[in-house]
């Protein structure tokens, strides 16, 4: 039975945006947890090396916090960017995460500039439409490369502190990007994100979750492809 919009603007806003709001709160809560536990962990390491400990403000811009945060964000943005692009052309029979095998879908149709509620770039056409029609993947890859660089920048700072403690020279961000440590950190995160794609695509062939748009209907056959 369809839900009716609430008469309260606040309740209606919360209901209509609840997925993004709750997701944002989860990100914020776990980031705060990471920040404080990372602060204690980093200060413990600094104490063992006989180096001055960091205040909360100093830790917020430290290499330890940057590396830990953007090492994970980098892999998330890479996963989503690749997933958006790969699902344009690739199919998986029976998966709710795939487009249908042979039928044309709404997302494949050319945008209609005469549609009354079409976004402004669609109505304007030209380069704005060309950019807008690829804007989701472009945004994810820009975020990926930004996080990739910040991961390297933070990692270089942490690595340099360890090197100097051992009487060795500090290194630059670019130099750190040539180390096996940097690529080990990246690959271990990337493969976990690719595993999540494979798991979601594969498990949705045979398993169901009532009420979730990420699942096929509970009574759908295993061979039914798409939402």
Explain what you see:
The protein is an all-alpha fold and 227 residues long. It has nine helices and no strands. The two termini are 20 Å apart. The mean pLDDT is 93.
| Rg for CA atoms | 23 Å
Low-pLDDT stretches: none
The H-and-E topology, N to C, reads as HHHHHHHHH
The tally of helices reads 9
Biggest beta sheet attributes:
none
Distance between the termini: 20 Å
User: Regarding quaternary structure, how should these chains be classified?
Assistant: single chain
Query: What overall form do the CA principal axes indicate?
Result: elongated
Q: Helix content range of the residues, please?
A: 55-70%
Assign the structural class, choosing from mainly alpha, mainly beta, alpha/beta, alpha+beta, or little secondary structure.
mainly alpha
Mean pLDDT: 93
Task: Assess the beta-strand content as a share of residues.
Answer: under 5%
Number of strands: 0
Characteristic terms for this protein:
single chain; 227 residues; mainly alpha; 9 helices; 0% strand; elongated
